[in-house]
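Lecture 7 notes: from sequence to structure.
We start with the chain below.
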Amino acid sequence: MHHLIFSLILMGEQPGSGQAGNPFMTFVPLILIFVVFYFFLIRPQQKKQKEREKILESLKRGDKVVTIGGMHGTVAGIEEEKKTVLVQVADNLKIKFDRTAIATTEKQESGEKLASKE
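Predicted structure tokens for the same chain:
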């Protein structure tokens, strides 16, 4: 009884009928898996990547940043053509990082004055 109902639901071959099943129905599970992967994995990752690119493009002098290596500092300069960022990590210490090495940013109200810790 269960086999007959299952066969009717999937429009597959009924036992003893000799008819071929619907070839489209064999691809339905594969299509559903692709749709699930797209909406739960691929699409959110694309949104994250676009947001990250937008944040990296909007970097300006004075923004506090954290690199992917865990270095905290303040943006002291940006070289657009080389796509690098000069980050001040101490009073007299500036390190040049690739723009993609910036993990997170914290925007400052004033973009020109560097904050100094005393």
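Points to note: DSSP finds two helices and five strands in the chain. Strands lie at 64-67, 72-79, 84-90, 93-98, 102-106.
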